[in-house]
Amino acid sequence: MEKDNEKKYGFLRKQTKWEDLYFYQKSVTLYQLSFIFAHRYYTNSDRTRDQLIQAARSGKQNIVEGSADGVTSMEMEIKLLNVARSSIKEAREDFEDYLTAHQLAKWSPGHARYNGMLDFCRKHNKWEEYERYVNKWNDEEMANVGLTLCHMIDKMMITYQNKLEKEFVSEGGIKERMTAARLGFRTNQKDEIDRLKAEIQQLKKENDILKNTNLNL
């Protein structure tokens, strides 16, 4: 009964398991890839090295924080996911700049390697599935995989944010859910009081009938 009431009058949203979100898994992969790429191909004095690592880290960390804060504030979750998307875009710019600066190919539709890379990144999310290839890939390959991951993460997050926006419109924020839960609880209390009053009235009637019956005897 107590658990039923918690479900009925609860106003906290269910905790999202961010570890199960595909775009989070890809963001972890992007961070690991960026870390290795930055240390392998940028010098210690190049500020881009730390910027790329921090951008990739910020992306995944804000997904985690947004999902955690979403229990009480969907608004905060949406805001932090936007921060994550901005960070992922920064990482994307760094990969693009590297390819341009080093006169390397940016793989696009029509490139011999494009479809294979796209298919691989679509099918694989977790770092363990990429790790074995990292030591084999050169800078052009790693940068293009990083770029592709950035694009995919962003598109997946847009879809997820659209879902949250619809949920927010239909259910409201924490204040609306708290108010609805409180009103629901009060309504249930009133219904219970009315039911008890009706039972008391019925018992009084039955008691009066019994009294009259005894008097007639």
Topology:
Blueprint lengths: L1 H8 L12 H20 L5 H23 L4 H28 L12 H10 L4 H7 L4 H33 L2 H43 L1
Helix pairs in contact: 2-3, 2-7, 3-4, 4-7, 5-7
Describe the protein.
The structure is a single chain. The chain has 217 residues and is an all-alpha fold. The protein folds into two domains: 12-172; 173-217. The chain has helices spanning 2-9, 22-41, 47-69, 74-101, 114-123, 128-134, 139-171, 174-216. The longest helix has 43 residues, at 174-216. It is rod-shaped and about 110 Å long. The chain starts with a helix and ends with a helix.
Q: What tags apply to this protein structure?
A:
2 domains; 217 residues; mainly alpha; disordered N terminus
| Shape label | rod-shaped
Structural class: mainly alpha
What string, H for helix and E for strand, traces the elements in order?
HHHHHHHH
Low-confidence stretches: 1-12
Percent of residues in β-strands: under 5%
Helix tally equals 8
How many structural domains can be distinguished in the coordinates? 2
Would you tell me the overall average pLDDT?
Answer: 83
Helix content: over 70%
Rg for CA atoms: 29 Å
Largest sheet report: none
Kindly report how far apart the N and C termini lie: 46 Å
Number of strands: 0
